[in-house]
Amino acid sequence: MWTRFDAPAKSFHVDFLAEAIYKPRDAFVYAASLNQVEVVRRWITKKLNINELDKEGSHALYMAAQNESLEVLELLLESGANVDQQQRDVRSSHCAYVNVSSNLLRDDSLFDRQGKTALHSACTWGRFEAARLLLAHQASLSLRDDDGQTPLHCACRNGHVGLVQLLLNSRVDPFVADDFGATPIDVARDWQRLDILDMLAAYRATEFLEANQQRVKLLTEGLSNQVELPQGVRDIIIDFLC
């Protein structure tokens, strides 16, 4: 079974194999999953549509993120790949593209990729650097897959503490419920991700306090427009309500 780590050292081997077995769009996605930068670059030079889905509904950016093929990932992003493109109709037939030796495999749901973006993929498989690169290119934190789950749901389910912190630092909304009514906190609780639960609880308290302070500030400013309030009185109101 092919994995990124079994890839031939010489890219022309991948060229020959890919072109012999796959159609151009499939060969392109395959090469991207193996971090074959020069192969991918040649396809881009040939004006191949880098956002085109292969026969399984996968696209190059998603597979590069899943395998943390960072050089290819950066090349695709700089070449105009749609950072928020979603997967369609992909099941375990794509196992050959995945580093199957990864201990991040939790359950069969990892292969249910419908509606997932490259950021979903990185957060599912624990690809921190890939996620960081995607976020640097303005990947959406709020896009949902076909089950209504965000990248934060994926990171919480699979216990990726560093990725959860990365998303929180990017000001992700941790209160979004999926189509089954589960928030990321619910997911972390169900999967017994205790470190993540503590992290989300602390973030929720901080986020709530900051948001509440902002609301009270706007309220007191509104009152001040109608009645002159000394600064000391305004401070007392804010301290009392928060």
UniProtKB/TrEMBL annotation:
SMART domains the record matches: ANK (SM00248)
Positions annotated as ANK repeat: 56-88, 114-146, 147-179
Q: Identify the domain of life.
A: Eukaryota
Query: Coiled-coil stretches, from where to where?
Result: none
InterPro entries, alphabetized: Ankyrin_rpt (IPR002110), Ankyrin_rpt-contain_sf (IPR036770)
Sorted UniProt keywords: ANK repeat, Repeat
Q: Which Pfam families match?
A: Ank_4 (PF13637)
Q: What is this protein called?
A: Uncharacterized protein
Q: Give the organism, scientific name.
A: Phytophthora nicotianae P1569
